[in-house]
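Intended use. Records like the one below are meant for learning the mapping from a protein sequence to its folded structure. Do not use them to infer anything beyond what is encoded.
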Amino acid sequence: MPDVHTSSPTAARPASGFATPPSAAELLDFARRTAADAALVASLPLDPEGRTWLRLEGPGGSEAWLIGWPPGTGTGWHDHGGSHGAFVAAAGELNEQSLAARLPIAGWKTLELADEMDRERRLPAGQGRAFGPHHVHEVINPSPTRHAVSVHAYYPPLPLMRRYSRTGQVLRLEQVERPEEWG
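Structure written out for the chain above:
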């Protein structure tokens, strides 16, 4: 079953109220405050087989999402097309696998990763992280029985996402997705 999504009429990109674009720390603060909104988190329809999402109004022209994760689902390895961002677990728990190195945003198809580059974070409800424009990671709901919900924010709004496969220490670019493909 494909991912299910919802949107609201107010989901258009907000006008920037910031004199400067929001920083990763400001996006993390927004994600934390939004994740603490129990009524909003509870309003997200959850599907037992596919991720669901709702577009939110992010700060300063950022792109923001409330995302539901069925048990055992994940994103696969990806980046955010040069945008910086943040995410916070609002319900349940997420695990993040990431690389502790600044990878080039473009210009490569295959990289052999050095030893000791892997990082893992456990993010229970209320916990999150901010990241820069070169961040490559995968996010997983490790629970075999419980949905997770999270809040994500990106600036600038995602121009694209690159999807990768990983075999051992080899990271390979597999696909480039553009916003018009996300439905």
